């Protein structure tokens, strides 16, 4: 257990070993919830709204499938020109 002091403006300092272990950097966000008489503090990574699609379940499943295809050699190309690439796309 780490003991921290509540300072002016109700600020606390997170112990350095916990910051390092959880990779918390200055400017990061923390989610704070109350559970009974305890505070539960969890690091949160904020995702810009224009990048949220990348973190959807469907996108991650498609990425995993693409990684598997690449690992198994199920790929076309590389192509020397756009015409050859278009021919390969139309062949499927």
UniProtKB/TrEMBL annotation:
<dbReference type="Pfam" id="PF04014">
    <property type="entry name" value="MazE_antitoxin"/>
</dbReference>
<dbReference type="InterPro" id="IPR007159">
    <property type="entry name" value="SpoVT-AbrB_dom"/>
</dbReference>
<dbReference type="GO" id="GO:0003677">
    <property type="term" value="F:DNA binding"/>
</dbReference>
<feature type="domain" description="SpoVT-AbrB">
    <location>
        <begin position="4"/>
        <end position="49"/>
    </location>
</feature>
<protein>
    <submittedName>
        <fullName>Transcriptional regulator, AbrB family</fullName>
    </submittedName>
</protein>
<dbReference type="InterPro" id="IPR037914">
    <property type="entry name" value="SpoVT-AbrB_sf"/>
</dbReference>
């Amino acid at each position: 257990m780490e003991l921290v002091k509540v300072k002016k403006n109700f600020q606390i300092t997170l112990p350095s070993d916990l910051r390092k272990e959880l990779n918390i950097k200055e400017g990061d966000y923390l989610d704070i919830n109350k559970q009974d008489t305890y505070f539960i503090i969890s690091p949160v990574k904020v995702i810009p709204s224009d990048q949220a699609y990348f973190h959807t379940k469907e996108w991650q499943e498609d990425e995993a499938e693409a990684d598997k295809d690449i690992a198994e050699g199920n790929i076309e190309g590389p192509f020397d020109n756009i015409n050859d690439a278009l021919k390969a796309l139309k062949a499927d």
